[in-house]
Design brief:
alpha+beta; 3-stranded antiparallel beta sheet; 27% strand
Length: 166
């Protein structure tokens, strides 16, 4: 498993670490209207999936805004942000911040995404910060588990991987 800290303290990640070349694991999360969303819902598309601890924190806010701004330049790439925030809070946050190019998804119910992608922080029941790119054939082409959960991911590398995925 990836070694991750939260505010400098080591944390335990639960689930299965995902690696480049793996078949992307399926998951079940909730959209802002409480409807279920799975990986299958975006089958045949390139996906950039951003896992964040909470949209109500500075880095997660900035990260989601950045991916929202960059989404149009990615062409046909579907950009998803997953956190354990409640769907109602995600909807409110998106509306207040003009987020229209990123779909926020809640993993609060089952931690299905978090366990499938190895990003559940056991001590906090939050998701660790990570970015995954999944191509249209459901192969993982890019993975970054951010070593310090309060740091930003490598935006340029993730965006380049999304642009290059088929």
């Amino acid at each position: 498993m990836a070694n991750v800290t939260f505010k400098g303290n080591p944390v335990t990640l639960l689930g299965n670490e995902v690696k480049v070349g793996d078949k992307a694991p399926n998951f079940s999360v909730l959209a802002n209207d409480l409807s279920p969303v799975t990986l299958e819902n975006t089958k045949g598309q390139v996906r950039l999936i951003s896992a964040v601890p909470s949209l109500d924190t500075g880095v997660c806010d900035a990260e989601t805004r950045r991916f929202n701004e960059e989404a149009n330049s990615l062409g046909d790439v579907k950009v998803l942000t997953v956190s354990v925030d409640l769907p109602f809070a995600q909807k409110r946050w998106c509306g207040a911040n003009g987020i229209e190019n990123v779909q926020t998804l809640s993993d609060h119910r089952d931690l299905s995404f978090g366990e499938a992608y190895g990003v559940v922080i056991q001590e906090l029941r939050l998701l660790a910060r990570a970015v995954f790119v999944v191509d249209s054939s459901d192969t993982v082409t890019y993975v970054e588990y951010v070593s310090e959960a309060t740091n930003h991911p490598n935006y340029e590398a993730a965006l380049e991987a999304a642009r290059n995925a088929k």
